[in-house]
Design a protein that fits this description.
This protein is α+β, with helices and mostly antiparallel strands. Helices cover 40% and strands 16% of the residues. It is built from eight helices and four strands, in the order E-H-H-E-H-H-E-H-H-E-H-H. Helix 3 crosses helix 4. It is globular and about 50 Å long. Bound molecules: guanosine-5'-triphosphate and magnesium ion (MG). The site of guanosine-5'-triphosphate (GTP) has 10 residues, from strand 4.
Length: 151
């Protein structure tokens, strides 16, 4: 099954939205396979967002990501990379549909509370950046036969 990297940014943690956000992924049917709370260094944030290094907001973005605890997670499930981004909503909460995490819970692009990998290669790289292989827990979930209709 596919895996994606999801992080609740410092604003989401400070605003008490951890349970709300986890609940949305959990109820959808995705499986949590890794989780930890960490304060990333600025250098770590720069590595995480290296694709955006030439954007004017890069420095502020990395300061922000490293400004407090981030809840780093790996979620597993069929199509979780793409559909996880759908649950999250578009980058700018002003344009995110109601019903999405950013649409329901955030207001401005610089404080959009959550990150999700944007494709299979990014997901692989981000999981490897944030987690040691031993921190990823592979296990069978009883719900899977009901979620996927296989035995
Ligand atoms: P992530 O899941 O966090 O990677 O967001 P995304 O994939 O929806 O957007 P993208 O990777 O393009 O940008 C990464 C992050 O940079 C966004 O989540 C925003 O927090 C921030 N960002 C993107 N565009 C802008 C912008 O125009 N202004 C500001 N201030 N921040 C931006
Ligand atoms: Mg992105």
């Amino acid at each position: 099954l596919e895996r994606t990297f999801i992080a609740i940014k410092p604003d989401g943690v400070q605003r008490g939205l951890i349970a709300e956000i986890i609940s949305r992924f959990e109820r959808k049917g995705y499986k949590l396979v890794a989780i930890k709370l960490i304060v990333p260094s600025k250098e770590f944030a720069q590595t995480h967002y290296h694709d955006l290094k030439d954007r004017p907001f890069f420095n502020g973005l990395c300061d922000f990501l490293s400004s407090g605890p981030v809840l780093a997670m790996v979620w597993e499930g069929e199509g979780v990379i793409k559909y996880g981004r759908k649950l999250i909503g578009t980058t700018d909460p002003q344009k995110s549909e109601p019903g999405t995490i950013r649409g329901d819970l955030a207001v401005v692009v610089g404080r959009n509370i959550i990150h999700g990998s944007d494709g299979p290669e990014t997901a692989r790289n981000e999981i490897a950046l944030w987690f040691e292989p031993s921190e990823l827990v592979s296990y069978a979930s009883n719900a899977e036969k009901w979620l996927y209709g296989v035995n």
